[in-house]
């Protein structure tokens, strides 16, 4: 074989091998690793307890409410979710909300307005006073800056705001979801009586003379 042809064949073989290697590399999964400080790195190693695959969310699936939080804060929020129960014209409720927002606590707010809301609050806390804060299964009745801060510290929430820029807590929702009004039913049509059969006009066995009244 001519040397030039041999060299061309080697180049083609080398190119094919590189393509195979590249294809194998593309097929290998890549994982997203987050350390305890929230630093994100990417690796081909399988995830451990503190890592997650770097997979994009599938279409049609809504991301969890805490998906945009730093890793450590997300873990705390999943373990000890915070819920504020409030109502309108409640000054302590506004102060309580400001504490959570200023400190950067991800929380859900449930409002108490209707009689059904009040009944649900009484079943939940055995009282009807507000505000009420729940941290996991712990209930804190009435606002107290020192007490609320103490329990948030114990749960592992950061003392200063570490929320990402643009993060927003979900909008407040009623404690009891409003039930849709039942659709008005149309009245059933009234059956009309069948018209009486006309009396025979001529003589009949029961009326041989054909008398009409």
Automatic annotation (TrEMBL):
Q: What is this protein called?
A: Glutaredoxin
Lineage per the UniProt record = Bacteria, Pseudomonadati, Pseudomonadota, Betaproteobacteria, Burkholderiales
Keywords (A to Z) from UniProt: Signal
- SUPFAM superfamilies in the cross-refs: Thioredoxin-like (SSF52833)
Q: Does the keyword Signal apply?
A: yes
Question: Per the record, which residues fall in region Disordered?
Answer: 42-61, 163-213
Locate the coiled-coil region(s) and give their ranges.
none
Q: Which organism is it from?
A: Variovorax paradoxus (strain S110)
Domain (Glutaredoxin) spans 82-138
